[in-house]
Amino acid sequence: MYINGSWREGDAHFAVHNPATGELLAQVAESTPEDVKAAIAAADAAFNHWSETTVYERSALLYKAYELMLAEKQELAHLMTTEQGKPLRAALNEVQYAADFLLWFAEEAKRVGGRNIPSVRAEQRFMVLQQPVGVVAAITPWNYPISMLTRKLAPALAAGCTVVLKPAESTPLCAIAVFKLLEKAGFPAGVINLVTTSTPAFVGELFCTDKRIKKLTFTGSTWVGKHLNSLAAQHMKRVSMELGGHAPAIVCADADPHHAAKGLGLVKFLNAGQACISPNRIFVHRSIYVSFLETMVDRTKKLIAGNGLQTEISIGPLINEAAVIKLERQVEDAVAKGARLLCGGKRLTGPTFDAGHFFAPTVLADVTEQMDIYYEETFGPIAAVLAFDTEEEVTQRANDTDYGLAAYIYTQQFSLAHRLMEKLNFGIIGINDINPTSAAAPFGGMNASGLGREGAEEGIQEYLETKLCGYLI
Ligand code: NAD
């Protein structure tokens, strides 16, 4: 734990394991309610001074953190692969993405200005101030264990807020590494605080009920997000919620099926499918369905699973055994209801895999609405593919989900792409683009995928309060 500028060991500990090898990596402090309250008290005590620093001082510290993160990129990526499992190349990309938020918000800090509004009365003026909301509580997931931290910490700190952060129980070591780096950058005591635990519910409850916390920012499952949102509502706290997704991908009749299959294969199997923007239902126009599936299956069979520290590995383990069991259930259910299993479909076994949690990269064709996978977030390496005939049909089916995070479209027709973009109820849309994300662009979902946006100028607004001042001269 990192509380009020010092590291604490704690009396009790929980184990962190490598999901590829099962190896015990470390024992991490099990925070008590008293520790969490101490972290909140430290953030509260530090708030006045921190919020009064100039934006240029805050920017300089974030910029320093950015430089340190780039300097430590290799070590951070190595740690991430060991603790979370993604291949080293993907971990390096994530550290770069995480650093991008530090840089973006180091700059964005200087652009929070407020505004003046003219009045109908000659002697009246209106001024709008934007001020930090106060102490922020942050809860982050394991799938992107460094970038999901900086996506919250950087805008909160830039805005002048102090923070207490609780990382996921599977990946506290990445969080500890980020906090060591922020400490090195020179953030004052109390401004950033870290509490770790393997039993997160009591922390969520303290975050939502403590009067000193003014804002909760959460990334994780929709189920936990709804629970925390309802608790926070009882105390009228501001919230940002980055939740689950069930992205549709639409491959139109004019698209190159091989190009689309390559792109969607890459984004589907990224992080072993454990991404909130992973395509979960791939709709392919019937006229190119067979060619699309051929390329998708061919490329999927070539993926090499294993320990992400080895250079030839293109797909790592799942985070835990429960994830493997969920995928086995989704495949079994789909096949029983008529889906064609074209490759994969089972856990990987053998000396390379037995100590970890590996699932074979899988392609399921002819998926239908009757199957669990059609509505349930997969969060694993299963490409669920189905054919469509008309624009109207595919729009309706793509929108047939409670989620609304990301969607993908492959077409060369501008007007078709534009029509689909307008009609799809998703916060992020990639058109011939499998990576429509950047620190400079607003990331977030609609409906059950959440509230608010991260990154971009919207990202810092989540941590600012608006104050209107009307006055007579
Ligand atoms: P999760 O909801 O189980 O856990 C997320 C975080 O919440 C962890 O830190 C966990 O410890 C904590 N948590 C769990 N129960 C809690 C409780 N009762 N009170 C307080 N905190 C609690 O989700 P997960 O399995 O770790 O992450 C995967 C989910 O996150 C997926 O649904 C994925 O789509 C989503 N996700 C969304 C985004 C996004 O930006 N929209 C990004 C990454 C992941």
UniProtKB/TrEMBL annotation:
Lineage: Bacteria, Pseudomonadati, Pseudomonadota, Betaproteobacteria, Burkholderiales
Name this polypeptide is given: NAD-dependent succinate-semialdehyde dehydrogenase
Domain called Aldehyde dehydrogenase: residue spans: 7-467
Pfam families assigned: Aldedh
InterPro entries from the UniProt entry: Ald_DH/histidinol_DH (IPR016161), Ald_DH_C (IPR016163), Ald_DH_N (IPR016162), Aldehyde_DH_dom (IPR015590), Aldehyde_DH_Superfamily (IPR050740)
Sequence similarity: Belongs to the aldehyde dehydrogenase family.
SUPFAM superfamilies: ALDH-like (SSF53720)
MF annotations from Gene Ontology: succinate-semialdehyde dehydrogenase (NAD+) activity
Alphabetical UniProt keywords: Oxidoreductase
Entry's Gene Ontology BP terms: gamma-aminobutyric acid catabolic process
Claim: Oxidoreductase is one of the keywords in the record: yes
Signal peptide: none
Domain of life where this protein originates: Bacteria
Entry keyword Transcription: no
